[in-house]
Amino acid sequence: MKPMGPDRIDERLEESGQQVVRALVRDLPEEPVSLAWRSELNEKLNKAAASRRRVRRFWNITAPSLALSAACALAFMMLGRTGSQAPGIGQPTGPVVSRPAPDLASELVNAHQEAVFVSDVAGSGLAPTEVSESSAQHGNISDSDLELL
Amino acid sequence: MELCLGATRLSERRTDQNGSEAAIIERCRRQDVEAFGQLIDLYQNRVFGFVKRMVPNAEEAADITQEVFIRAYQNFGRFDARSSVRTWLFRIAYHLCVDRARKVERTPTQVGLADQEFGEEIDVSDVRWQPDQLALQSELMDVVEEGIRSMSDKLRSVLLLHDREDMAYDEVAQLLGVPVGTVKSRLFLARAHLQNVVKAYLEGDNGQ
Fold it and tell me: Measured between beta carbons, which residues in chain B are less than 8 angstroms from residue A24?
């Protein structure tokens, strides 16, 4: 059989025999579904809806947590990278040696020793400043003043 | 005047129907089960009729039809409204039937061009509405159903979608993913096959 062109097939489809068959097919009885079928479908749909709701709720909770974790991980990664970068100009290259903080007890001992030393030199009645001041004043007395005494 | 008024009312009713269907579709997109139930009410019998004629087992057809609506509900977010909901539902139904046929590896009687006789006309429409011919009519419908069942899936799907569901050629072509020319040639072959089946029945009936 020769293949038909587009116009030819349109013509053949409009032939009465073809149209009778079309009418027969169109008039075939409808296939109604049963109520049991429908209620079974409703149950399945409700299950599907519940399952979707569960999945959606799970993601509503999980998604922000995952996003927060990812953000934290990223922040830690960025901080780690900044800490391990090479030092710039003027920044110390060697390890920083920590100097121990001055001990309070040794400070007190030092202060006490100095005070004892001063008292040994100047005597108990005069303070070191007084010693120096009196000696300075003594230096300003003239010989005539001494004679008057 | 009355005719014009009737046409206007009909047009308004269609617009209302389209509007209400659009509203139902919008609610279905938000996974509204109740709205989807309304959509099922609109299409359940048509989809079931299509599937039942595509699948020989009625129980299996009922299961497949349920699967059609469950899949539609689960994937309604993907429905892009480029085609109508009806086309979309029938597309799901068609693919499920094809998948099922692949699983069963059913090999229907293939109807080819070689074994067809074309052009001979039959006259069955004149007896259909006579009350005394109702039994014959019912028998004829059984013959038509049997003729549809004996076709290949490709011919049967085109025949049912175009002649039964009244879809346009391009709609059927879009649904099946074939060119319009292929749809037309398949439709011609399907009708010719059915024509031969009915003719054989009528000739046998007349002969008895």
Answer: 124, 140-141, 144, 194, 198
